[in-house]
Write a structure and sequence with these properties.
With about 650 residues, this protein is mainly beta. Helices cover about 5% and strands about 45% of the residues. It has three helices and 51 strands. The strands form twelve sheets. Strands 1, 3, 6, 8, 11 and 13 form a six-stranded antiparallel sheet that branches. Strands 14, 16, 17, 19, 22 and 24 form a six-stranded antiparallel sheet that branches. Strands 25, 27, 30, 32, 35 and 37 form a six-stranded antiparallel sheet that branches. The chain starts with a helix and ends with a strand.
Length: about 650
C-alpha cells in the first residue's frame, strides 16, 4: 500500500514537472492566424461594462441559462466599450452575442448592439429572448484605429436586458474588410455647426426606425408637438473632400400610430437640394445615398412638419456618414436660395429656408416642400418681393408654383403671379383650383438689376389665396455663345415672307428672332445642318433691326445680337394694257410689243394661269418686241409685268389678244 502510494506520488511529481517545464517551451506559431480574447483586454473607455454577473464574480449565462466561461457584459441605456486597435494587425472580430437568461422573462424593454470600426458600422443586431445565441464574424478595415461596442437599451417595467459578448476575440493574420473609402466620418463625429430640435443617440437612447428597432448611432429631428414647423441640423464639411453622403431615414415608430401630422425631409449641399421626400406612417425605411458636389461647405438635413391631433412626428437618421469614394465629384450649378441673395423690399411675403420657418410650403395637392416662398396680399397692397441681382451673377430662377391646398375650398378671390426683370414681364400665370403644381423656370436677362416676384390678388369672401413657390432658387447656368452680326442676314421681301438666315451653327441649335421691343417674332426648328432660314410673315416696309439669339442644346439662350435690315424694295410701275399690242400670227411667231418703257426695263409674259412664257432682254430704247412661238389659234389673254432697275417686279396686267 505504502509502495503504491509512493509510486503514485512520484508519478504525480514527474507529471507536474513535465507540465511545468512544458510551459517554458517555445510554441510553434500558427502559419495562418492567431487571436486575442476580448475578455483579456481592458477597454480604453467604457460605460455599463461588466466582467461578471455580480460582485461575487458569478459567471454570465446565455439566453438558455448555460454558463458562459469567457464573456463580458453590458447593461445601460448608453453602454459601450472602446478598444484602441491601431497597429495591432487585427483583421476581424469573432464571437457570439446573447442575452443573460436572468434578464429575459418579462418586460425588459428593447436592446440593440452595434460594432464599429472607427465610424464605420460593421454589424448591428436588435436582441430579444427569441434571438437566441447569435454567431458573429466581422472583418475589420485595415488601419482601423478604434473598435467600438455600442449598446442602446430602453428600460422595461422589470428593468433592462444584460447583453453578453461570449467568446469574443480579435483575429490577426486574416483578410481585411475591403472598403473603397479614403476618408469616412459619421456626421455625429463631425458635430453639428448649428441645429434646432436635434437629438443624437448620445443624448437620447430610444431613437428608433419605423420598425421599432433601436438605432446605435444617429440622430432625430422633431419639432415640438404643439407647433410643428422646421427642425434641422447643419454640418460643416468644407475642405474634407467628401463626395458621398449615406444614411437611413425613417419615421420613429413612437410617432406613427394615430394622427401625428406629416413630415417632409430634405438634404441640402449649401443651398442645392440633393434629396426630398414626404414620409407617412406607411413609408418604409429609406436607404439614401447622394453625391456631394465639389466645394460644398455645409450639409443640412432638415424636416418640415405639419402638426396632427396627437402632435408631430420624429424623423430619425441612422448611420449618417460622409465619405470620399474614388476621385470624381458631381457638378452642380451655383445655386442660391432667395434668403442667401437677400430681398430689397417685400410685402406679404415669407420665406422658409434651411434655418428659418416662414410657414408651411404646402402645394395644391397637400404635399409639402422643404423650402420656398409664400405670398398673400394684405392691407398694404399686392404681395411682392424684389432682389438686387446686379452683382450676384445668377441668370435663372426656378420653383414649383401652386396654391396652398388650405386655401382652395371656398371663395379666396383670384391670384396672378408675375416674374419681372427690370419691370419687363418674363412670366405670368393666373392661378385657379385646377392649376395644380407648375414647374416654373425663367432665364434672367444679362445685366438685370432688379428681379421681382409680384402676386396680384383680388380678395374673396374668405380672404386671399396663399401662393407658394416651393424650392425656389436662383442659379447660374451655362449660356449659349452669342451670335456675331456677320453670320446673320435679313431679307425684307416685298409681297412674300421675310427671311432671316443664320450661318455657322451647330446641330440642334435653335434660333429666335425678336423685334427691338423684345417681342418674339419667330423660332426656328432645331438645326439639322450648319445653317437655318427663319421665315417671318412681315417685318414691315421700312428699314429696321431685329434681335437674333441662339440656344444650344442643354444650354440657356444667348444674349441677342442686333441685325439691321433694309426697307422693302419698291415695286415697279405696272404696265398699262394700252401700252401693249399683240399680234396672234398664223404660221409664224406671235409678236408682243410694249411701248413707253424706260431703259433697262425687263418685261415678263405669263399665260392666263400665271405660268411664265418668256422674259425680255433689258430694254435699250423706249419699247421692246417679244417674239413667242405660238400663243394659240384662238383668242385669249396674257399677263404682262415690268421690272425696272432697283425695283421688284410689278403687278401683272391682263392683255387680250384676238384669234389668229
Amino acid at each position: 500500500m505504502i509502495k503504491q502510494v509512493l509510486k503514485t506520488m512520484i508519478a504525480v511529481i514527474v507529471l507536474f514537472s513535465v507540465a511545468a517545464y512544458s510551459n517554458f517551451l517555445p510554441i510553434k506559431a500558427s502559419a495562418a492566424t492567431s487571436s486575442v480574447r476580448l475578455s483579456s483586454l481592458s477597454p480604453d473607455s467604457e460605460r455599463g461594462f461588466y466582467t461578471s454577473y455580480d460582485y461575487d464574480d458569478e459567471k454570465f449565462t446565455d439566453v438558455y441559462g448555460r454558463t458562459v466561461n469567457d464573456g463580458v457584459g453590458f447593461q445601460d441605456n448608453y453602454a459601450h466599450a472602446t478598444y484602441n486597435v491601431a497597429g495591432k494587425g487585427y483583421s476581424s472580430f469573432q464571437g457570439k452575442i446573447t442575452l443573460d437568461s436572468r434578464n429575459v422573462d418579462g418586460d425588459y424593454g428593447k436592446s440593440v448592439v452595434g460594432f464599429y470600426a472607427d465610424d464605420q458600422l460593421l454589424y448591428e443586431k436588435p436582441l430579444s429572448k427569441s434571438s437566441g445565441v447569435v454567431n458573429m464574424d466581422v472583418k475589420l478595415p485595415k488601419n482601423t484605429k478604434n473598435f467600438f461596442i455600442i449598446i442602446r437599451e430602453v428600460e422595461g417595467s422589470k428593468g433592462r436586458h444584460l447583453i453578453v459578448i461570449q467568446d469574443g476575440k480579435f483575429v490577426k493574420g486574416g483578410s481585411y474588410l475591403s472598403v473603397p473609402y479614403s476618408s469616412y466620418s459619421s456626421l455625429l463625429t463631425i458635430g453639428e455647426s448649428k441645429s434646432y430640435n436635434y437629438e443624437t443617440t448620445s443624448s437620447q437612447n430610444d431613437l428608433q426606425d419605423i420598425n421599432g428597432n433601436l438605432i446605435t448611432d444617429g440622430f432625430s429631428l422633431n419639432t415640438p408637438s404643439y407647433e410643428g414647423g422646421l427642425s434641422y441640423s447643419t454640418f460643416s464639411i468644407e475642405g474634407n473632400g467628401y463626395n458621398t453622403l449615406e444614411t437611413s431615414v425613417s419615421l420613429d415608430a413612437k410617432y406613427v400610430n394615430g394622427d401625428w401630422g406629416k413630415s417632409v425631409v430634405g438634404i441640402y449641399a449649401d443651398d442645392y437640394l440633393l434629396y426630398e421626400k414626404e414620409f407617412t406612417s406607411k413609408t418604409p425605411i429609406q436607404k439614401v445615398k447622394v453625391s456631394i458636389p465639389k466645394g460644398t461647405h455645409y450639409l443640412t438635413l432638415l424636416t418640415n412638419q405639419v402638426k396632427g391631433a396627437k402632435g408631430t412626428q420624429a424623423v430619425t437618421f441612422s448611420q449618417p456618414v460622409v465619405s470620399k469614394v474614388g476621385s470624381s465629384y458631381t457638378s452642380v450649378p451655383y445655386t442660391a436660395l432667395p434668403s442667401t441673395i437677400g430681398d430689397n423690399a417685400s410685402n406679404g411675403a415669407w420665406e422658409t429656408n434651411l434655418s428659418h420657418f416662414g410657414g408651411n410650403i404646402r402645394f395644391s395637392n397637400g404635399t409639402l416642400g422643404t423650402s420656398g416662398l409664400i405670398f398673400e396680399s394684405n392691407y398694404n397692397g399686392d404681395a411682392y418681393t424684389t432682389y438686387n441681382l446686379s452683382d450676384v451673377g445668377v441668370n435663372y430662377f426656378k420653383a414649383k408654383l401652386a396654391l396652398d391646398s388650405a386655401y382652395l375650398q371656398g371663395d379666396y378671390g383670384s391670384s396672378t403671379i408675375q416674374l419681372l426683370a427690370d419691370n419687363r414681364v418674363l412670366y405670368s400665370q393666373a392661378l385657379t383650383r385646377s392649376t395644380g403644381i407648375v414647374n416654373v423656370g425663367v432665364q434672367i436677362p444679362s445685366k438685370t438689376q432688379e428681379f421681382k416676384i409680384l402676386v396680384k390678388q383680388k380678395k374673396g369672401a374668405k380672404g386671399y389665396h396663399n401662393v407658394v413657390l416651393g424650392n425656389a432658387v436662383f442659379q447660374k447656368l451655362p449660356v449659349s455663345a452669342k451670335l456675331s452680326a456677320s453670320r446673320v442676314s435679313v431679307a425684307n421681301n416685298y409681297n412674300q415672307n421675310d427671311v432671316v438666315t443664320v450661318k455657322s451653327l451647330a446641330k440642334d441649335d435653335v434660333i429666335k428672332v425678336y423685334n427691338t421691343k423684345g417681342a418674339l417674332l419667330a423660332t426656328s426648328k432645331p438645326v439639322t445642318s450648319n445653317y437655318t432660314k427663319v421665315a417671318i410673315k412681315q417685318l414691315g416696309t421700312a428699314k429696321g433691326n431685329v434681335l437674333v439669339s441662339r440656344t444650344t442644346s442643354g444650354v440657356l439662350e444667348s444674349d441677342s445680337v442686333s441685325v439691321p435690315y433694309a426697307a422693302e424694295p419698291v415695286p415697279s410701275t405696272s404696265v398699262a394694257a394700252k401700252q401693249v399690242t399683240i399680234e396672234n400670227n398664223k404660221n409664224k411667231n406671235d409678236l408682243i410689243t410694249v411701248k413707253s418703257l424706260s431703259k433697262n426695263d425687263v418685261i415678263k409674259v405669263y399665260n392666263s394661269k400665271g405660268s411664265l412664257i418668256t422674259t425680255s432682254k433689258p430694254v435699250t430704247s423706249n419699247y421692246t418686241k417679244i417674239s413667242i412661238k405660238q400663243l394659240g389659234t384662238g383668242k385669249g389673254n396674257v399677263l404682262i409685268s415690268r421690272i425696272s432697275t432697283g425695283k421688284v417686279e410689278s403687278t401683272k396686267t391682263s392683255v387680250a389678244y384676238k384669234a389668229e
